[in-house]
Amino acid sequence: IAQERNRLAALMSELTQSVVVCNLDGQILLYNQRARAQFRALSASTAQGAGSELIGLGRSIHAVFDRRLIDHALATIQQRCQRGASNPSAQLITVTPAGQLIRAQVAPVRDAPGEVSSGEAISGFVLMLDNITREFEQETLRERLLQGLTEGSRASLANLQAAAEMLDLPELETEMRERFLGVIREEVATMSQRVRTLAEDTTNQIKTRWPLEDMLGADLIAAAARRIDALPGLRAVASDVDA
Fold first, then answer.
1. How far is CA 158 from the centre of its chain?
2. DSSP secondary structure letter of residue 17
3. Which residues contact 127 (CB under 8 A, 6 or more apart)?
4. Any bridge partners for residue 108, and if so which?
5. Are 94 and 65 in contact (CB under 8 A)?
6. Spatial CA neighbour of 51 closest among 122, 129, 134, 126
7. Rounded to 10 degrees, what is the CA torsion of 46, 48, 49, 50?
8. Distances, alpha carbon 104 to alpha carbons 91, 184, 210, in Å
9. Cβ(104)–Cβ(129) under 8 Å?
10. Is 23 helix (H, G, I), strand (E, B) or coil?
């Protein structure tokens, strides 16, 4: 058992996703380093070693996840097992005491893989965790910007249409014509500023959305050269690059 446990721990340590293995009571049996780092960010403490109060062998996962959420996920998995699902799982989202938004995929640990319809077949569960706080904030900001653009543009377009219709009147006095032209210039300037603001904010969000990983400089140059060579009429020559 110890040998199998060490093998599983070695495998989990290589995963880039946070993984926690618990028994049915919520007692933590195994976790990887990514999960430890995740729980450090979830901790409300700022002291050194923060997160250790949340995760550790023998600790309860219910310090982060409400027991009712876990029980509901396990009940959903059990129902899917009884319906004959080969790989049943459930998802849940919760807010931690530190205010972080966590999405977890729950998968069962079975004693006997063939006994999918038996209630005793599930002896624990695996949690695969993602901190979606920043993703949620960015989506919220994007929606707010788009809604602001839509609502503001609707009012500006209505003013532009009204001014254009008045300018079509042949008997319109010169003073009124200048006033309506001023309305058009003002609304166009407002819409232009609104679009520029949206473009700047969207550009910043696109920059931060790309995943950042370590990469060899030589690999980056080689990839760029291949993309350039694929374009018609272009040829890329790369000098020696520090690997």
1. 37
2. S
3. 18, 19, 20, 21, 22, 61, 65, 104, 105, 106
4. 125
5. yes
6. 129
7. 0
8. 6, 52, 22
9. yes
10. strand
Spell out, as residue ranges, where the chain has pLDDT lower than 70.
Answer: 41, 43-54, 97, 111-120, 204-213
> pLDDT tens digits for 127-186?
998 888 888 887 787 788 788 878 878 888 888 888 888 888 888 888 888 888 998 998
Closest CA to 165 of 153, 176, 154: 176
Q: Identify the helix (H) or strand (E) that includes residue 90.
A: strand 90-95
CB atoms within 10 A of CB 180: 19
Give Cα 92 distance to the centre of its chain: 14
What sections of the chain are H helices per DSSP? 2-13, 33-42, 67-82, 133-167, 174-209, 217-229
